[in-house]
Every structure is written in structure tokens, then in C-alpha cells.
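Subject line: Sequence and fold of a protein, written as C-alpha cells
Area: Proteins and the way their chains fold up in space.
Start of record: The labelled sequence and C-alpha cell lines come straight after this line.
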Amino acid sequence: MGPNLHSAWNPVDYPRLSLRLGQLAGQLCHRPQSDVLRDLFSDSLQRHRTIEQLACQLRTIWLQNGKIVWLEPLHVSAENMGVATALTVRNRRLKISLTLELEPAGRITEYSCQSDTLEPDFDSILQSLKGLPGQVGLCCWELTSEGPREVISYQPEQPLSVASAYKLYVLGALAKGSMWQDSVTLTESVRSFPTGLLQHWPAGCPLSVQSLAALMISLSDNTAAEVLLHHMGKQRVESGLAEMGHSKPELLTPLLSSLDHLRLKSDPTAAHCEKFLRLDEPGRRHLLIELAKLPRNSLAIPSTPTQLEVGWWATPADLCRALAWLSRFPQACQVLQINPGLPLSRCRWSSIGFKGGSEPGVLAASWLLEHCDGRVYVLGAAWNNPRDVIREAPFFGLLESLIWLLPEGQIGPDRHSLYPVVR
């Protein structure tokens, strides 16, 4: 999931945008008022669509989704551009994006409205997760002074492939070693494959460890992770797994780099993977050294699930423990906050840290969330299906519903989220 850069939409700070949002939401009804629509939409928009057409569109949205009962601004990308979300009586969730003209009237020049169904409670989320094909696990805790309090879980200690979420442990080694200001040079030997940006950068570029960590977490940049592992040494990461709460460090030992992973899985006969699984730890380390001699042009990125047993394994609770451990390090938290993973409310959540992971047959996601009232949550989840490529939408949709239900476990406005509909 790419980075989603935005600022909190506080209605007090953006009064015009908030007013137009409320007026637009108020016209999602059986009979939108023509005089209101003429004042609401810009002349340029009205030249492309008549008032009757605009009214028909708004009425259609209302017919498909029902009356809005809760409207909450999510974020702004400029003074005249914002995204909000709404809930309807039919338990439908609307994502409303709008852009205002720059003239003093500030009328709407463009808008869109997407809808989906929000799971109404934790039980519904668990039932939907259990219905996903393959293996799935979930763990969500509130971090309290007495220790973690379970909010919701399903197979929290089930080991699953978590793909690039292993980079949390690389971040942990950096945080403990306080190497943020170190400078590293990009070389051909550590140039990996997508995802990321650095695979396209020329060799010889100097990069700070802080920048590499930011790219590794926010864009899941494989080359950035490769450079950091080369700089620190894999053993530094492996030695910190237990301290960060991994329940079975042997599942990540020896730690694979992204290039190790591709070298093992590029063999169409699966011989490298099968040999790796048969070997003990010293044998696996020796095999990785031998495979490092393969030419770069012999490596390929699998497009279907390939030997998921070879990869990076952790439980959902392991991911939660890793994030709880990282929460003690301000610079690590800053890195985690670059990409929130989902368009969550900046009014509701004062801090959103995220790291996901994916490969064919694998999805993983983890969040470190601080609510505006000071409560802190960690969430870890993974879905594995060795038989088929899996789609992000159902998995992340359920996790977004879960986060919406925090902290009270039910849908409804709280003092941080209620925003009245202006009719």
C-alpha cells in the first residue's frame, strides 16, 4: 500500500471546506433542492452537468446507500481539497472527496462518492475473516500500564508468512543500535528488485540510515532493506528477535534478505526451496552464500504463490509485540508514521504507524495507533493462501472496519468524530 500523505481535517481550521461537505451530505436525499445545488456547485461544473443531472446523481447515491447518520472529515491535501467519510442507516460507508473553487464563494468544482459495507461489530469481522480461503490470523491489543489488554483476536499465535513485515525487525535493530546518522553508499551488490525506488538509483549514491529506514518502511523498499542488512549484518537483526517479542526466532533464522528470497524462489523446479527446507541452520546459511553467486539476470519475481514455507514467518501477536517494543523509540515511530496504510481519520487518531507485507499468496498488515484520548493500540494480521493469489480489498476492508470500531467496539460518533450534517 503506497504512502497516503495528508493533514488532519479539523472543521475549525477549514470552515469553508467543512460547510460545503455538510451541505453536499445534506443533499444526499430523496429530493435534492435545486436552489441549494445552484449555490453548492460551481459554474464550471454546472456547464458540464445540469442541475437536474446533479440532483439525479445525488438521489441515486441516496437510493443505493440510505440516509447519512454520521459524517466525519478524514483529511485534507490542500485548503480546498478534502476527503470525508460517512455512515448511513443501511450500514453503508461512503468516502466523499471534494474540491472547491478558489473564488471567495468556494463552491464545489468536483466531487466523488464511493461506497462499501462496514462490518458493524467485532463478531462480524471475525466471521468474515474466518471465511477467507486459506489461513488467517488476527491480534489487537490496547497497550496499558498494566500490560496489553486483548481487544479482539483470532489465532493470534498461529505462525504465518508475513512477507515484508519482517522489516519491523530490521527497524528494531536500527533503533536499538542508534545508527540513524550513519551514511551508506549504494552499491550494485545490494541492488534488489521492486517494491521500492532505490533499485533504479545509480550506484555510488550516499544515503543516510534514517532515509533508508524511511524508504524501507513507507515504500517497503527492498533495496533499502538490503543496504541496511549489509551495513548492520544480519546477525544483529537475528539477535534482537527474542527481545522484540518473536515467539519462535528460529522461524526467521537465518534471516532472508529480499535477494535471498528471490534466489531461492526463482528456480522453476523449486529445487532450491526444497533443499533449503531440508537443511539445518548452518546448511541454510551455506546455501544462501552459494546462491549469491547466481547472476542477477537469472532472478525472477514469482507471480503465483510459490513455496510459502520459504520466507518470513511470525504470528499476529509477534507483530503486535514488535510494534509495542518499537513504540519506545521516537525515531522508529516517526518512520512508521510516514505511510498510514489506510485513509484513517487524523482527527480521531493522533498517531498512525503502519507496516504491511505482500507476495503472491501472502498479505500482512500491522498498525501502531494512538487515539486522541491517549489510548494506544497495536494490531497485527496475516492471510496466507498457497493455492491462489489473494486480493487486498477484502482483507484490508475488514481491518479498516476493525479500526473504525476502536476504541469502543461499536459504530457510532464519539466526541472526536461527530460532525453534523448541514441541510
User: Anything to note?
Assistant: The first helix runs from residue 15 to 26. The first strand starts at residue 7 and ends at 8. The two ends are 36 Å apart (CA to CA).
